[in-house]
């Protein structure tokens, strides 16, 4: 690539996933993309993550937080720190992912093809089952109360290798245009973790930007390893934030229909926990869902560049 290659600042949030973070960085530094700056924001890990990165990947910029302020807070800290470099794009990357050498280049090429693209994302496949797709994205339809998820846990096939526009993209790997972030704002920190990716995709969409899945680009995802560290807290947050999100953004013809769809989806989740030996997750799930309904939906929080 020549000197006109756009600058990509990679932002990785980490909390107590030392081995996976190191493996992620190892794959990242083997990329064939030539203009890249990597920032790891550590959320006060206790597993020697920071020292290991300093020793094994000294070229990485480290931001050491004194407390775990959440995933969205860490991402925003990394984005703001990277802004001094005036990058063209930010790559938001989960620490439990592995990125093939050509993925960043493919995402950037798609970005350059259309100035109204805010986000490009690779096709996410399971690390241990690469024949299966973790996620492609979600489509909003005017007559359905919830968006339609495409490709979830499906076997990969040629149709999934196309470039497609989606309303929502899963946040484990998002290449984001700096200009669109300056216009729309950063991640909403009130979510702490979960649905902050859907929220920013929705704000981009509502502002007239495009969210694109590049099916020819891949990323391997180890599928929510972080949530297994404190499962009850994560179950609570996912349920609460789901309610907050669908109360903030209308889907379908009637809010009551969305509420019913969420209710029956919650019943299905509770039964799944009941019959799969995850009974300890039922109480925090119910607690989170109820808090998401009875608490006021917070305004956008922490999205300013200041």
Key structural traits:
single chain, 306 residues, alpha/beta, 2 domains, transmembrane helix
Helix content: 25-40%
Q: Provide the CATH topology of the largest domain.
A: Spore Coat Polysaccharide Biosynthesis Protein SpsA, Chain A
Number of helices: 9
How does the major sheet shape up? 10 strands, mixed
Account of the protein in words:
The structure is a single chain. The protein has 306 residues and is an alpha/beta fold. Helix content is 36%, strand content 21%.
Q: What is the element layout, followed by pairings?
A:
Layout: E1 8-14, H1 18-28, E2 36-42, H2 49-56, E3 61-64, H3 71-82, E4 89-93, E5 97-98, H4 103-112, E6 117-126, E7 133-135, E8 137-139, E9 148-150, E10 163-166, E11 173-177, H5 178-184, H6 196-206, E12 210-221, H7 231-248, H8 255-275, H9 282-294
Parallel strand pairs: 1-2, 1-4, 2-3, 6-12
Antiparallel strand pairs: 4-11, 5-12, 6-7, 6-11, 8-9, 10-12
Helix pairs in contact: 1-2, 7-9, 8-9
Short description:
This protein has 306 residues and is of the alpha/beta class. 36% of the residues lie in helices and 21% in strands. The two termini are 34 Å apart.
